[in-house]
Specification:
single chain; mainly beta; four-stranded antiparallel beta sheet; 4% helix
Length: 123
């Protein structure tokens, strides 16, 4: 059974940092592109960024490039999201997802979704 489990969320102060993890199982992790998405109350889900199966290529919307970094460890079947200089508007549920290719991450049509982890940035 496919499973994506996000951990590392919590409450942080403005300007703080968090590192989220996504543990994958039930599929060939190293063959899939991976991505992070987020959804705040009252807003639509948006792409944070994605990475090719090998980790050799990444994509971020312009608004995410300066503060968010995606990495992966295929030996551990784990995806990471490093978040720095956090702002209250970063408050959202953050989701991990897997897709056959990076394009499907970018257009937000992944094959698998995690359950999400809450990130709250206080002001």
């Amino acid at each position: 059974q496919v499973q994506l489990v996000e951990t590392g969320g919590g409450l942080v102060q403005t300007g703080g940092s968090l590192r989220l993890s996504c543990a994958a199982s039930g599929f060939t992790f190293s063959s899939y592109a991976m991505g992070w998405f987020r959804q705040a109350p009252g807003k639509e889900r948006e792409l944070v960024g994605g990475t090719k199966w090998s980790g050799s290529s990444t994509y971020y919307p312009d608004s995410m490039k300066s503060r968010f970094t995606i990495s992966r460890d295929n030996d551990k079947n784990t995806l990471y999201l490093q978040m720095n200089s956090l702002k209250p508007e970063d408050t959202a549920v953050y989701y991990c997802a897997a897709a056959r290719n990076l394009h499907n991450i970018v257009v937000m049509t992944p094959d698998y979704w995690g359950q999400g982890t809450q990130v709250t940035v206080s002001s």
